[in-house]
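Late entry, written up from scratch paper. The run itself happened at the end of the previous shift, but nothing got recorded in the book at the time, so transcribing now.
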Amino acid sequence: MSLCLPPRLALVGLRGAGKTVVGKLVAERTGFAFIDLDERIAEAAEAQHAGEVIERLGLPAFRQLEEDHLARALAEPRRIVLSTGGGAIESPTSRRLLRTAAVTIWLRAPLDVLVRRVAADEAGAGAASLRPSILQAESVSGAAEATSPDGEFRILQRRRAPLYEEVARRAIDVERLDPEEVAQRVTRIWLG
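Output as recorded:
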């Protein structure tokens, strides 16, 4: 491994893009620590998952926790592989941190793939939803398009895609790749 290796890797993308699965695989390949930002926030808030934190504290408080925990993770002296929450890039401070303190890679997938993966994850967890509607938590009015999961994903994708693009060194389209292939590409980009 090169001595010039950037110390931190951050994965960004919408829910269902595979950030956690791929992040764990990359951490295994490199021997570096893996951090799931949503898990860290939930643990600190003594909650089962990030959705519970949003429901309990509200989205603005969650976003502040997200920003704080991102800053702490990226300031750690050890080399890390970080899986961010899908909305972590909505904070200008978080975007600056992701651009300057990590090699950030955007995992990108079509909406139908994301909706299908999230539905499967939630069914597997035995929960109606691991995360409340972000648009409802923001009290977005007039968003008739957001009444279905794919409608919400469509709105979030339009809003977040330019932000992912702003922070990411590269984007990887993950639709036709298995997690191992994505992890290989991520590792190559990071170590290259």
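Confidence is low (pLDDT under 50) at residues 140-145.
(Scratch paper discarded after transcription.)
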